[in-house]
Specification:
145 residues, mainly alpha, 9 helices, 77% helix
Length: 145
């Protein structure tokens, strides 16, 4: 591996191909106790990042705010997020925002205006446009579902 690194063979495809080999060698040469210690530090890091995301996604409007709240740069946040959730941040945020909006429209007693304000829409027209684009129905149509 030192030889590969010294020759600057750092292409993504190459590293992807070497990953299974690394895991195989680790499992062959290290006792389970040592591997558990090694993997637990990675697992707890991922678990705490996941916990942070799930508890804070509703507090931010975009990826930049999310990264700032986490203390990471935007590129680093995007990378960690993709590794943890296996999808891009914006796509994940949009999906969860849609789920939350749909849930509020169907189950809550809040007015449509209150819901649109809660999710940061500047007007009912913008909120209606968002609902039609993402659900194929107006907020009122979703509510009557």
């Amino acid at each position: 591996m030192k030889m590969y690194l010294a020759d600057d063979l750092l292409c993504a495809g190459f590293l992807q191909a070497k990953r299974p080999e690394l895991f195989y060698l680790l499992n062959c040469y290290y006792p389970i106790r040592k591997l558990t210690e090694f993997y637990s530090s990675i697992y707890s890091y991922t678990k705490s990042f996941r916990y942070f995301v799930l508890n804070n996604y509703h507090k931010v409007r975009d990826v930049e705010e999310f990264a700032e709240l986490s203390g990471y740069t935007v590129p680093t946040f995007r990378h960690i997020f993709k590794e943890t959730f296996d999808e891009p941040v914006y796509q994940w945020m949009l999906k969860h925002r849609c789920q939350d909006i749909r849930n509020d429209l169907i189950t809550s007693d809040m007015s449509i205006f209150q819901i649109s304000t809660k999710y940061g829409f500047e007007s009912l027209a913008n909120f209606s446009h968002f609902c039609k684009a993402n659900f194929g129905k107006s907020p009122r149509g979703l509510r009557s579902e």
